[in-house]
Amino acid sequence: MRLSRIAVYILSVLVVIIIGCTNKSKSDGVVDVFYLVSTDIVSATDADGNVTYRATLTPEDSLAIKAEMDYVHTNMFKEPFNFISPHYHQSTVHALSLPRAQYDPVYNEVVKEALELFEDYIKTQNNGRHFILAGFSQGAMLVQEIMKNMDKETLKRMEAA
Q1: 158-160 and 131-135 beta bridge pairing
Q2: Looking at residue 25, what is its pLDDT?
């Protein structure tokens, strides 16, 4: 079971899903990029020193995540894109070694947070613009989850994922 989950994870790193770029933005020509980072955190502990399988977003965690965000923004999605990449409590690399019964609740919490972040982005930052969903590794898996839960009106504004 663990091998198949890791294989799916690796495939999510390698696969980019293009949804057909037919919805060209008619307003100002600017398209948003909503980007979710990869698995940057190997292991984490909570305030009491107990192992946790989700990033706690310590200053060190935030630096690692920000480094990826900055690289992707600078090298892939600079102008004319609005680049949005929220920090999230990603699952750690060590979480991948958990038995499925332990891993699924961790992953489901990460998915829930990603869905909430995307919903907040749509409500407070998007302003009706077209957008691209992007992610790498764990972020690519979460992009797929967002697409599964996206309403039809929002889907019409998606350029690619």
Answers
A1: parallel
A2: 47
Q: How far is the C-alpha of 58 from the C-alpha of 89, rounded, in Å? A: 10
Cβ-contact 114, 145 below 8 angstroms: yes
Contact 37/139 with Cβ under 8 angstroms?
yes
- The residues of the chain scoring below 50 in pLDDT are 1-26
- Range of 26's domain? 2-160
List all residues 6 or more positions away from 161 whose beta carbon is below 8 Å from its beta carbon.
17, 18, 19, 132, 133, 134, 143, 147
Amino acid 60: pLDDT: 85
66: left (phi over 0), alpha (psi -120 to 50) or beta: alpha
How many angstroms from the chain centroid is the CA of residue 55?
14
Which tens digit of pLDDT belongs to each residue from 71-99?
Answer: 888 888 887 899 999 999 999 999 999 99
- Tell me how many domains the chain contains: 1
Q: CA-to-CA distance for 145 and 36, rounded, in angstroms? A: 12
Cα–Cα distance, 131 to 156 (Å, whole number)? 10
H or E element at residue 132: strand 131-135
CA distance 108 to 23: 31
